[in-house]
Design brief:
Blueprint lengths: L3 H12 L4 H17 L9 H13 L2 H8 L1 H23 L7 E11 L5 E14 L6 E3 L8 H19 L1 H6 L19 H4 L1
Antiparallel strand pairs: 1-2, 2-3
Helix pairs in contact: 1-2, 2-3, 3-4, 5-6
Length: 196
């Protein structure tokens, strides 16, 4: 079934006398909008899509796609913060490391294939400073923190953070986003210069 926004846009373009090839281009933009955003189609407004089209018209492709997801820009700080908090919280837990690790985080907004996909990469020390700050505690070989626990903590903290700071945005996101398992992969990377 055709989304109401797309259907309305198609009719508006037809009534405006736009050439069929131009109509096709605009309708491709509608499809891209839903593909490249996390908005729930049931909650999308004409304003959301109008902002998207204006961005496409005003900016070069890469710059435009970044601005298309303006709703996500508001989430970048939250994503960085909750990603770091999840690692720190689990590392400080005595069941795992029981110490505070060193952490370097980088936000990526694109994949290697140039798909819009905000995510955080981290370098985390394989150990940390004890609670009293006097000892360095090494992690168990090949294990820092449980992956599933971190994934769920990250997902839940993102949901809580959005509900609190951007309830308007939270309401527009697909409900299934908060039910599925998130990927928060953790791999041993190396030591010293080779690790960096």
């Amino acid at each position: 079934m055709e989304h109401p926004v797309r259907k309305q846009l198609r009719e508006d373009l037809r009534l405006a006398g736009m050439a069929e090839t131009s109509q096709a281009s605009y309708l491709e933009a509608v499809d891209l909008f839903f593909k490249r955003t996390w908005l729930d189609p049931e909650n999308v407004t004409q304003e959301d899509f109008a902002d998207y089209l204006k961005t496409l018209q005003d900016n070069a492709a890469a710059q435009g796609t970044f601005k298309i997801a303006r709703f996500a820009i508001a989430c970048y700080d939250l994503l960085m913060r909750v990603s770091a908090e999840a690692v720190m919280t689990l590392c400080q837990d005595k069941k795992h490391l029981g110490a505070t690790p060193a952490l370097l985080a980088v936000l990526h907004t694109w994949t290697g294939r140039m798909d819009y996909h905000p995510h955080v990469h981290m370098l985390v020390s394989a150990g940390g400073v004890s609670d009293d700050g006097t000892l360095w505690l090494d992690s168990k070989p090949g294990f820092l923190i449980p992956v599933k626990a971190r994934s769920r903590m990250l997902r839940n903290r993102m949901a809580e953070g959005l509900k609190k700071t951007r309830p308007d945005l939270f309401a527009k996101l697909k409900k299934s986003l908060w039910k599925k398992e998130w990927v928060a992969n953790i791999l041993p990377w190396g030591a010293g210069e080779r690790g960096v």
